[in-house]
């Protein structure tokens, strides 16, 4: 809502967003976009089914006709400082869906979880560095604060409705934004010196999926990023091979599974098989 209001304000003044002191750009998806599937279970719920004639589509990967990639957090990387914006950020529960699906905030900025539905939801955050909350929201209009005291990215879910999920990215500085369905992002540069900066894009499925450089001059900068998540879109059997051959840690996993344990187990099984059948030893060694 804040992003839409900001854009509308610029247009009403006869200006584009480029007239503001900000970094802006677009994130596109380079490759075959995965088909979006209906949200499972939402039309089977007594309350939620009344709000949807057909199941809405999953929001984890939204790619437009021109490759525009939504819900990407784009931020400047480095030892940066800046004041937290005074504006509140809202994570709402509307028609049994978290809205927006992804938000970015600055440490100390107020993040409010709210319920716009006339029945029970709960807000269950899964952070590592911030205090977690698991708060029931049985009343329409109820608001609760999500702590934002430390930088990290974490998931938010509703235990009442298991398909409901959102992501929160918290930063030590205010130089970050989230792409809309048009793939566009922007953030203000107040307090930021002119110069060259590293830019990183993060997506819930593809993680840190693109990097780039932006030159800021007179407070303004523009950078477009392209996401090519080949590993993330590999067939299931191909990804299993990656998991079974990498044993140094869970870098190949994006779903929170115990990658190292799986890899170690697969390696042990392969070694045992090689000992039992010496003919396979050479292949295993390769």
Automatic annotation (TrEMBL):
Keyword Signal tagged: yes
SUPFAM superfamilies reported for this sequence: Carboxypeptidase regulatory domain-like, Cupredoxins
Superkingdom of the organism of origin: Bacteria
Signal peptide bounds: 1-21
Keywords, in A-Z order: Signal
Xref: InterPro entries: CarboxyPept-like_regulatory, Cupredoxin
Protein name per UniProt: TonB-dependent receptor
Organism: Humisphaera borealis
């Amino acid at each position: 809502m804040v992003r839409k209001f900001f854009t509308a304000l610029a247009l009403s003044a006869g200006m584009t967003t480029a007239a503001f002191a900000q970094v802006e750009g677009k994130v596109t998806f380079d490759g075959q976009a995965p088909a979006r599937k209906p949200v499972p279970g939402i039309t089977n719920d007594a309350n939620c089914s009344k709000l949807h004639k057909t199941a809405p589509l999953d929001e984890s990967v939204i790619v437009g006709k021109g490759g525009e990639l939504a819900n990407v957090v784009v931020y400047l990387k480095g030892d940066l400082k800046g004041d937290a914006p005074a504006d509140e950020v809202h994570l709402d529960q509307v028609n049994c869906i978290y809205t927006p699906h992804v938000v970015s905030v600055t440490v100390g900025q107020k993040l409010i979880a709210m319920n716009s539905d006339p029945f029970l939801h709960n807000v269950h955050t899964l952070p590592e560095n911030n205090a977690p909350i698991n708060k029931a929201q049985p009343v329409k209009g109820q608001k609760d604060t999500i702590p934002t005291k430390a930088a990290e990215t974490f998931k938010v879910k509703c235990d009442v409705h298991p398909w409901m999920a959102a992501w929160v990215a918290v930063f030590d500085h205010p130089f970050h934004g989230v792409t809309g369905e048009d793939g566009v992002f922007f953030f203000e540069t107040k307090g930021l010196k002119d110069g060259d900066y590293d830019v990183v894009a993060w997506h819930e499925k593809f993680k840190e999926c693109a990097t780039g450089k932006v030159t800021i001059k007179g407070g303004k900068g523009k950078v477009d990023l392209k996401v090519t998540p080949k590993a993330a879109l590999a067939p299931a059997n191909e990804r299993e091979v990656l998991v079974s051959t990498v044993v140094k840690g869970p870098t190949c996993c994006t779903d929170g599974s115990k990658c190292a344990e799986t890899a170690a187990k697969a390696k042990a099984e392969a070694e045992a098989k090689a000992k039992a059948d010496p003919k396979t030893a050479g292949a295993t060694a390769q």
